[in-house]
């Protein structure tokens, strides 16, 4: 090969490198500040606040919480085993009555794997059987003709497959087949628009299956689905660089990281996403513990697929707690709260201190009378379930919007309305 040949060869190599999705290291102080926001959650040990996703996120990050982290897993185990297997340690506690959902059980299994445990023995087998049963029920709900919908969501369906896969538990081809079908026929994964979170989760599940070769009969279909998902996610990149929106970008990057796509400038797309993400972290967009738990692995170059063989010996930096003192504010703002989907419609201007969350606005409106709302606690925080006594029905939800028509990207606990803003609560279908 002549000099020119060598040069072209090297340039070709560099070009190929640039097409790999890599996330260069991020300022460790920034990562630490994110991790510190998880610490208060790890002290919140009431059953309805326990969150296996936080544990998973921390274990796949470059950070650790020492004894606190170990104790958190211990409490997670007690609580999940109790509510799923009926093992007692305080029988008359009513908190135990709600059984974890399919997705929560899946996240719990991911948490065990993040501690390098494999589900085994009688207890482990029962947990695996429960998750398999959940998936079988969902498969039935989707139906032979794929016309139905899972009771939970395709997001949880993907999470369930992923969790069993990292424990090397085999699922029937037909269970995997439903998710393959949904990815091929995208309309099933839409919540108005393509849900990047949902396809990314499906992609993580398929990537695990591909690595583990647990469904050899579906091998080619799985490989094609992963390619298809990568393409969908790339197409969903916004001009700012997000894949979908700021909060779906962490899962999207978990999927794209370390992958390459022939003929596509994946490297550039990922660098752009990383830059957009870091700017929004600096702007304080990541306050929600669940969101932080999906982001931290990415900032450490890891994804949920790494739970196939987690590195439990990797050195991690110990987190030190910080006390954040919110600066008191004298300024009062007014926010218009509008609920057109009830009769008579509700509309009122509510005054709250600047910096209040939407939840503070709802509380104040309720205190002033004439307004009522209800919430349910979830891993993402308080989910608005009813407004003015009207509960959202099946496949309905109370959508949060900034007038005239912009859906909020945060929930009631995190969104802080600005002075003069109108917030609409709209009964919508998904
Ligand atoms: C499916 C889904 C929905 C479904 C949930 C219904 C269902 N039966 O599954 C629907 C379409 C109703 C929905 C609604 C909303 N969602 Co949503 N949702 C998701 C998704 C894709 C998966 C959630 C899940 O199943 N997790 C796994 C299970 C095991 O955890 P879980 O806690 O048990 O799950 C429940 C909660 O997540 C809850 N939920 C769903 N979304 C949200 C959002 C918030 C803020 C809260 C508190 C709870 C909540 O519904 C789940 C099922 O019961 C996530 C994606 C993600 N990356 O996490 C986005 C996600 C959590 N949603 C998001 C948002 C913004 C919303 C809305 C606020 C949108 C809006 N403008 O109205 C509303 C919630 C409004 C309200 N009433 O409080 C953001 C949250 C970002 C953040 N900063 O925290 C995410 C990350 C999507 C995104 N990339 O923007 N969502």
The radius of gyration over CA amounts to 23 Å
What is the ordering of alpha helices and beta strands? Answer: HHHHEHHHHHEEHHHHHEEEHEEEEEE
Largest sheet: 5 strands, mixed
Contiguous low-pLDDT stretches (5 residues minimum) are 7-16, 88-97
Output the structural class. alpha+beta
Write out the distinct hetero groups bound to the structure: cobalamin
GO molecular function: cargo receptor ligand activity; cobalamin binding; metal ion binding; molecular carrier activity
Pfam families: Cobalamin_bind
Keywords: Cobalt, Cobalt transport, Disulfide bond, Ion transport, Metal-binding, Secreted, Signal, Transport
Disulfide bonds: 21-270, 165-208
Summarize the structure.
This protein has 15 helices and 12 strands.
Task: Outline the structure in words.
Helix content is 46%, strand content 13%. It is an alpha+beta fold and 430 residues long. The N and C termini lie far apart (59 Å). The protein contains 15 helices and 12 strands. One of its GO terms (molecular function) is metal ion binding. Residues 1-18 form the signal peptide.
